[in-house]
Amino acid sequence: MKWLLFPVLLIAGTLSAQTIYVVRHGEKAVPAADATAKEKSDPPLSEAGLQRADRLALLLNQQPVTEIWSTPYIRTRATVAKLSERWQVPVQTYQPHPDSTRQMLRHVLQRADGVVVIAGHSNTVDDIVNSITGEASLPGDLDESEYDNLFVLRKEGGKFVLERRKY
User: Fold this and answer.
1) DSSP per residue over 70-117, as a string?
2) Lower CB density within 10 Å: C or N end of the chain?
């Protein structure tokens, strides 16, 4: 009977573990020369960015996403929009500023379990990942040309372990 109980406990422990996916928004469209200042500061995703958002949704299709966070910018919200639709989870927003980001992370880290997706920017992803791991896991801002990183943080033994993937 004990040998039957062990796999059940192992599965239960796996299901209750917290996993956080941190991603930079997909490629942004180049605004037209006559675009307004607002359009230039908050461009949508390009076709490549939309395809990347599709890949993210496909990659996380089997993950039971419980929370999604994004900055209020069009490109970050569009990056996680299909995940939101797939899991019927609203996208919660945070500002890409230290106080707002800290508040969002405090909320996320209070969760004992679940799958959380956080969309950020080239200059915020490293701060988010480093705050979660509690160490300098990423040495600095992402290069402006990097859009294909998926940072997977799994809680193991009371701390988060980072796995860096490309997608």
Assistant:
1) E-SSHHHHHHHHHHHHHHT-PEEE--SSHHHHHHHHHHHHH-SSEEEE
2) N
Asked whether residue 13 is assigned to any structural domain, the reply reads no
* DSSP of 21-81: EEEE--PBPPPPTT--HHHHHS--B-HHHHHHHHHHHHHTTTS-EEEEEE-SSHHHHHHHH
What CATH code is carried by the domain that includes residue 53? 3.40.50.1240
Q: What is the pLDDT along the chain (167 residues), one digit of tens a residue?
A: 333 333 333 333 344 579 999 999 999 999 999 999 999 999 999 999 999 999 999 999 999 999 999 999 999 999 999 999 999 999 999 999 999 999 999 999 998 899 999 999 999 999 999 999 999 999 999 999 999 999 999 999 889 999 999 99
- Check if the beta carbon of residue 152 is closer than 8 Å to that of residue 163: yes
Whether residue 129 lies inside any domain: the answer is: yes
